[in-house]
Amino acid sequence: MNRCVLLRASLLLSLLCVCARVLVELRGSSLTPPGRVREPAVTVATDAATARTHRRRIPRWKIELEPWAAEPRGVQEEARRFLGYISTPQVSCERPASVPPVFDREDHGSWALCLDHRFSLAQRIASKHCRVYSLRLAADDDRLERMLAGSGCEVHCFDPSLRSAHLQEEHMWLHRLSVDWRDPNPDRLHTHTHSRRKIKDILNSFGHRQVDVLKLDLESAEWKVLENLVLERVLDSLGLLLLELHLHWPGFEVGGDEPSVIRYWFSLLRELERAHYRLYHSYSDPNKPRLILHRNIQNASSSFVLGWVNTRFVPQG
């Protein structure tokens, strides 16, 4: 008899628990607006910063190509848009009165720094906390690098033509290393007299989170190296980007007909703008041939030096 009573009490208690659960669920659903899915108990952060972080984790395999300049697709239309874009600065960088004359552009050729106090480079140089990367191929003009090193910046030059693996001068390190845009082939790691590495790998191996100035003078390899900087999201780590463009041929591993090549060039530079970079300096070299893709187009030079400033760059440390 006692067992029967206990069994009935247990069943009744279980029934009451189920009813209470159903009542709670019904009350919760009545507070949810029609047509809206009820959120789980654990709150999921959906702010803009978290969304940007999530996007950074998704690898990119190619850049976004801009629409064609005009229909029908032609080299003249693409070249007109591209040349107009690289010849029109988007921001003006004022040189503060407190900056020494050594930073004038005439002292280091066609390369120009953005020392406007709206951005961080002038303050970083003054505090001797600036870091500079120079990627080059047997470059004979290193006035800018030496000037920055003499000002107290930590300057790293990467050049496969160096005789020694590593050389050090005052505030200046020379590395016999090729900057590549591809992952190294394991079968060829021991066949080169110098290493080939991507910028992201160099930063990680040196323990450098940021670079205040990145200078690219790579004799037509700049397009694919720049594309790698975009795809691997290295641009956020850079304050200033100095870039020499060589337009006489498409560049290493850049394929397609002439309109497609120029469209690719334009699209790649537009990726910089989407990453909050703004063009502040454009120099057309009058001493270089007037050839773009082996033809004279608008009598434009085959060589340009561009300066881009990252307007969202915040130095750390």
Strand line-up across the major sheet: 3-4-2-1-7-8-10-9
Percent of residues in helices comes to: 25-40%
Q: DSSP strand (E) fraction?
A: 15-25%
Mean pLDDT: 83
List the secondary-structure elements in sequence, H or E: HHHHEHEEEEEHEHEHEE
Number of beta strands = 10
Largest sheet descriptor: 8 strands, mixed
Outline the low-pLDDT stretches.
26-56, 189-193
Radius of gyration: 28 Å
Q: Give the number of helices.
A: 8
Structural class by helix and strand composition? alpha/beta
Q: What are the defining features of this structure?
A:
two-stranded parallel sheet, eight-stranded mixed sheet, alpha/beta, 317 residues, single chain, 8 helices
Structure in words:
The protein is of the alpha/beta class and 317 residues long. Helix content is 32%, strand content 18%. It has helices at 2-30, 48-57, 75-86, 121-126, 143-150, 199-206, 222-231, 258-274, and strands at 131-136, 154-158, 166-169, 172-175, 177-179, 195-197, 211-217, 238-246, 277-284, 303-310. Strands 3-4-2-1-7-8-10-9 form an 8-stranded mixed beta sheet, with helices on both faces. The protein has a two-stranded parallel sheet with strand order 5-6. Helix 5 (143-150) links the parallel strand 1 and strand 2. Helix 3 (75-86) runs parallel beside helix 8 and helix 7 (222-231) crosses helix 8 (258-274). The protein is globular. The termini are far apart.
Q: Layout of SSEs?
A:
Blueprint: H1 2-30, H2 48-57, H3 75-86, H4 121-126, E1 131-136, H5 143-150, E2 154-158, E3 166-169, E4 172-175, E5 177-179, E6 195-197, H6 199-206, E7 211-217, H7 222-231, E8 238-246, H8 258-274, E9 277-284, E10 303-310
Parallel strand pairs: 1-2, 1-7, 2-4, 5-6, 7-8
Antiparallel strand pairs: 3-4, 8-10, 9-10
Helix pairs in contact: 3-8, 7-8
